Amino acid sequence: MNGYGGNVLRLNLSTGEVKVQPLGVEMAREWIGQRGFIAKILWDELKPGIDPLGPDNKLVMSTGPLAGTLVPAGGKVSFGAKSPATGIYGESCMGGHIAAEMKYAGYDVIILEGAAAKPSYLYIEDDKVEIRDAAHVWGKGAMQAEKALKDELGEDFQICTIGPAGEKLVKYACISHDFGRQAGRTGMGTVMGSKNIKAIAICGSKSIPLADMTTAVAKGKEMLKGCFAKENLDEWQDYGTAGVPVWANKIGAFPTKNFQSSYLEGNEALDGKIMREKMVINDKGCFGCPSPCGKYCYVKEYDVYTEGPEYETTALIAGSCVFTDIEQVGYMNYLCDEMGLDTISAGNVIGFAMECFEKGIITTEQVGREIKFGDVDSFKFLAEQITTRQGIGNVLAEGVKYAAEQFGRGSTNFAIQIKGLEWSGYESRSAPSNMLAYMTCDLGAHHSRAWSVTHDMAVGRKVLEGKAQKVVELQHIRPFFDLIGCCRLQWVEIGFELEHYPEIFRYITGFDYSQDDLMKISEKVWNLTRAFAWREIEDYGRKYDYPPARFYEEAVTSGPNAGDTLTKEALEYLLDDYYNLRGWNKNGLPTREKLEQMGLGFVVQELQGLSRKLA
Amino acid sequence: MRIALNEARCSGCRTCQVICGLHNFAENNPKKAALKIIGHFPAPGHYEIKICDQCGVCAATCQFAAIYEIAGVYHIDKKKCTGCGECMEACPSQAMFRHRAEQAPIKCVACGQCVELCQRGALYDADSKEVQ
């Protein structure tokens, strides 16, 4: 099938059975790829109520039709499963080269079912698929394991791995690839660990058929050169997201001291220019990327190599845990990456623990030592305790929501999460649309779906009207890139125009979709993942969409937005507006009419079968 | 075109390999590319580019006279090539590649497509730009 690897690879790890099924044309036409495939497969194949870390959960790896072709940055792959962090739909995407590789091997989707009896890794070389023993890499750091397997299998293999945190089922373990790209969120590394899978190694030699090769190549070249010509390309590839922390502080959005403030004193020392001077040794790009934002670093002070720190890592480690030395942040980035911890959740959880300690909610006796903001040893100690699930680490490994429930004494108010997923790197009391974006993100408090701080700045940071509309629009556009297998950063960061994508999509796949058609499919997936959460949780709805009380009961403590807060009434207004625009009921649940209009009649039927009351 | 390298600028995106396969085989398949990007990670953290510098050792090695030169660029005559692989072994740059669907090795014919799409200047035309 044009644009596709053409097959679905299904491995039952309990029985060792390997099945290859052709990817259906209808599946491709209706769900496009990647996140679309994942959402549909998880809806169809997972029974509600299963244990996310049991053999009934499935880990689905999928990429999209533009991946591996001549388009800007066609190198994205997503992993999806019922999330152990949130108990609802989980998904995380990453770049690197493995998305393209799986298509050259002939696969658009790889489904892992059951669980291997012993530590194993998947060996995939075109049609040769084996579940191999991984005893020799079990326990190794994520990058160490990747290196060991590369040395063993050869440079041509693209490999993703988990670190010890994934093996120990830390709820925010990531999947790592290409020595520094991570599918970090919603515990996909945890699910991989629960299946006893240390790594997936892929090497493919096949061609991807294109519907109209000549035109696709011409258009691909035009798109790449369009990116090359963008004015801010040079600045973007010099600093990548490392250029963002100082800006985020200037506008008062940097999550500081566990989100007490939105401004970190001394943040200038975290600037991308300083980082480049001190640490960057290479600009690293993912597959087909015209604007490589990966800053590969050697941190001399600690003698370690790491990719990053990226903005989100700096936000949650430097901001939330209060550090202003970029080399220290680089070192902690390295530690998390090797351990296989998502730096967003890990930074968030550790910042929370530091605040709990400062407030006397947890004690030296409980923790085993003193811990404090801005102390590398405290961070390292907690990251290691979490990864090995020792002492207080066993509680923190369950995530900030669970930890707060255990610690009590009001700590839930400043456990900065939604739906059980730790909040990513923007303090949003002075950015209502961004607050709403994280509140309603289908995964939990995450920026990947919609991020709209600049919209708040453009139209007024106190304004509430029209904010929901922008969030809805972005929740279709940004995750659209996660349907097609492309990075969104060319559009987001260097201003590459969206309208190119439907055209090249047509030349590659032969499917004649307008931009509106593609956005409708994106909206369909949005409704499906919301329905997935409702299928899992009977009382799902509005109450799962509120941020922690800190954001509406406490004011920002310092910086340009000191004193800001968002009232509960403002949050209600935003949610009402948002649900209304989505065609959902007042409780934030899709109506029968909306689902049917989206072509999700099968969802209506199943929800009714479970006695969910559809309006 | 005289293709030259500035490896320190390579970001490892492999666009060069994609366009190479498309241009020379009319297939979306970078595994058929006549150049290869090798990452050296986690340490020392850089990319290496394997590409033919048209030295001609392959032609001198070939027993079947299957490799010929036109204007300083060496081409493989696929009809004469037996796929013995001696040229690949002799190549001092390790810049001839094997694909399971092709009998003949794959080598660069200096078409310059990779240079056109390398915005980083890791691959550049030494005829039009000073050697870096």
UniProtKB/TrEMBL annotation, chain A:
Reported cofactor(s): tungstopterin; [4Fe-4S] cluster
Residues covered by the Aldehyde ferredoxin oxidoreductase N-terminal domain: 4-206
SUPFAM superfamilies to which the protein is assigned, alphabetical: Aldehyde ferredoxin oxidoreductase, C-terminal domains, Aldehyde ferredoxin oxidoreductase, N-terminal domain
Key word Iron present: yes
InterPro entries: Ald_Fedxn_OxRdtase_dom2, Ald_Fedxn_OxRdtase_dom3, Ald_Fedxn_OxRdtase_N, Ald_Fedxn_OxRdtase_N_sf, OxRdtase_Ald_Fedxn_C, Tungsten_al_ferr_oxy-like_C, W-dependent_AOR
Keywords attached to this entry: 4Fe-4S, Iron, Iron-sulfur, Metal-binding, Oxidoreductase
Gene Ontology MF terms in the entry: 4 iron, 4 sulfur cluster binding; electron transfer activity; metal ion binding; oxidoreductase activity, acting on the aldehyde or oxo group of donors, iron-sulfur protein as acceptor
Entry-linked Pfam families: AFOR_C, AFOR_N
SMART domains reported for this sequence: AFOR_N
Superkingdom per UniProt: Bacteria
Membrane spanning stretches: none
Family: Belongs to the AOR/FOR family.
Designated name of the protein: Aldehyde:ferredoxin oxidoreductase
Organism listed in the record: Desulforamulus aeronauticus DSM 10349
UniProtKB/TrEMBL annotation, chain B:
Domain of life assignment: Bacteria
SUPFAM superfamilies for this protein: 4Fe-4S ferredoxins (SSF54862)
Domain annotation 4Fe-4S ferredoxin-type: ranges: 1-30, 72-101, 107-129
Assigned keywords, A-Z: 4Fe-4S, Electron transport, Iron, Iron-sulfur, Metal-binding, Transport
PROSITE patterns: 4FE4S_FER_1, 4FE4S_FER_2
GO molecular function term, any single one: metal ion binding
Secretion signal span: none
InterPro entries, sorted: 4Fe4S_Fe-S-bd, 4Fe4S_Fe_S_CS, RnfB_subfamily
PANTHER family documented for this protein: DIMETHYLSULFOXIDE REDUCTASE CHAIN B, OXIDOREDUCTASE
Protein name per the record: Fe-S-cluster-containing hydrogenase component 2
Organism: Desulforamulus aeronauticus DSM 10349
